[in-house]
Amino acid sequence: MEGTHTMPDPSVPPTPPVPLTALLAREDLGLRQLAGPPAEEVVLHWVHTSEMADPYPYLLGGELLLSAGVHIPEAVGPETSYFDDYVSRIVAAGGAALGFGVAPVHDTVPEALVAACASHGLPLLEVPPRTTFSGVARAVWQLMARARLAELRRVTEAQQSLATAASRPDPVPSVLRQLAQRLGGWAVLYGPEGTEIASAGRKPGEEARAALTRLTEVVRPSRPTQAASAAPHSGSNPGAPRQAEPGAPTRSEPPAAAAPTDPSRPAPASATDSVAGLHLAAYSLGAGHGFVLGVAAPQRTAGDHTVASVAAVLLSLLTGEQQSGTGAARSSALVRMLLGVPPEEVASLLGDGPWVVVRARPDGDGASDPVAASALGAALGSALVDPAEDVVRVLVPADRAPADPLPGWTLGVSAAVEPEDWPAADTQAARALARARATRAPLLRHGARPALADLVPPGEAAAHARALLAPVTAHPALTETLRTWLSLHGSWDRTAVALSVHRNTVRQRIARCAALLATDLDDPDVRMELWFALRHS
What we know:
Blueprint: E1 18-19, H1 20-24, E2 32-35, E3 43-44, E4 46-49, E5 63-67, H2 82-92, E6 97-101, H3 111-120, E7 124-127, H4 133-166, H5 171-183, E8 186-190, E9 196-201, H6 206-219, E10 270-275, E11 278-284, E12 292-297, H7 302-324, H8 326-338, H9 343-350, E13 355-362, H10 370-380, E14 385-387, E15 392-397, E16 409-413, H11 422-438, E17 443-445, H12 458-473, H13 476-487, H14 492-499, H15 503-517, H16 524-535
Parallel strand pairs: 4-5, 5-6, 6-7, 16-17
Antiparallel strand pairs: 1-3, 2-7, 8-9, 8-12, 10-11, 11-12, 13-15, 13-16, 14-15
Helix pairs in contact: 2-3, 4-5, 4-7, 5-7, 8-9, 11-14, 12-16, 13-15, 14-15
């Protein structure tokens, strides 16, 4: 594969580079460009000061090299090749620009140095006497920090928008559209056979699309039946391209010839290339399925690789679910239940039972977002997640019921039930969650254990409960308040927390219950009888 790069280049840092124009715009520095290409075409990765006559061994590439000319021999004249050799070594090492300090050694920048920089295309800056080299370095670091912060903000916003797109009804097209918009290019999803399944953004020309298709074969897992595949060769080919960090500019070098893929070696997770002025990238979406994400963009910054990697992770979850059939099974189960099939008849499509219902609420006052809800489901080992504004419900096989609290969540867990009892289990989980929040416990389970109440036949217990609670059952808020208040031993504050109401509201509702029931709720016998009735209501 021509121009393919799969490993990071240590000479390029992850921090976004600083445009030379931004440094020249600093009026406090007073820098002036004397030679070289336009500043708009130059970026700086760091600053280095050296007075060595040959700085090549000490440069990594991308530096603004600062020198006061101490290394220049006193007898050197314009007719010698000293300056030409000096500048050529900087260029050979990949130096981005040269800053020459005027004073205390030289009163002006040597004309021969200006000519050499112009000849070799190296930007030359004049550093005035009032500006120290440390001041120039500090300015570069400040600009770099600002660029880094701006890049982090951009990446964070892109991650949030991609996560939102993944939660939409058409998640794959939505993620591709959002990715193409964020990168200002084209995003495409390739299937296991290399065909384009979906795409979004500005479609590039045929040459770039063909190159991107070939690039996907580099990251797609090899099949035993494939005799050969285009891949980067890791041998001693002198024409092999210098490998570059994804998202970083690469140096122009002779391309390497394609080499057969070794089936015993895993394919790289990503690969990049440049064709027809476009930056191409391919990302494997999992070794088991063969889906690949392709990206073509007119430019590629350090954060673009992170953004595309997030999209690749989201798409790998979506395509992996589709490929495994679990998503289709859940959809089938949902459709059948909507069409009237009892839950117990479709439960086999969802997995082995029995089941528990987990109700979870994020700590603090914030509502749960779809990504957090999905992460909770993953932590519980279930994809059957129902996110709401403040509570997330998860249907979990009983053998995966949470045994320990999950950081950042308060959990209420039902008893293990069969599918026909899912609604009752949801009620149990809701009550367990309310009690957990009221008692500030990170996890509470519904306590199903033998009791004296079990000695009464269920029919008779239910009839007694209906008769006793008849005055308040017409008011669901009163019934739930009474139930919560009794479960929390008459605590006004904890009941208010559990119901998310003011404590005065709890007092008013309990007083109303006492009036409607015409009984003394301070009597422990009355409380016990009401609790017995509520458990069978």
